[in-house]
Amino acid sequence: MALVMNHEALNEFLERAFPQIAGQVRVETLDDMQLTARLMVSEQHLRPGGTISGPAMFALADVTIYLAILARIGEVALAVTTNATIDFMRKPEAGCDLLAECRILKLGRILAVGDVLIRSEGAEEPVARCSMTYSIPPKR
């Protein structure tokens, strides 16, 4: 499916519609096959033991899939997560941003399914894998 929003438009939408994460997540790259988003890791994303928290990684996966869907359908603020599974596979690198690579596996009229691999910047092995299903509201 052709892209209807580029990465600049997605970043602008994120800043405008979700000020609670402004300055924390941004789209790095986008093409027909994949969207890559960055979590700019700061103290608020850490948990005891000096690693990035599971909720921070889950939030990155969720917003990455959401943006990959919007890139294909346009600004639909009410698209929502209906199912999510995440596997935490290894400890993220301390002091490194996280990069989330998303592929949309299915995009239908009412449901979208995507997968995300999260890596520490500069690392080969993923730290988490997430699969999500989103509900897309009907067009008016």
Automatic annotation (TrEMBL):
It comes from the Bacteria. Keywords: Hydrolase. It holds the Pfam family 4HBT. Residues 49-124 form the Thioesterase domain. InterPro entries: HotDog_dom_sf, PAAI_dom, Thioestr_dom. The keyword Transmembrane does not apply. This is PaaI family thioesterase. The lineage of its organism: Bacteria, Pseudomonadati, Pseudomonadota, Alphaproteobacteria, Rhodobacterales.
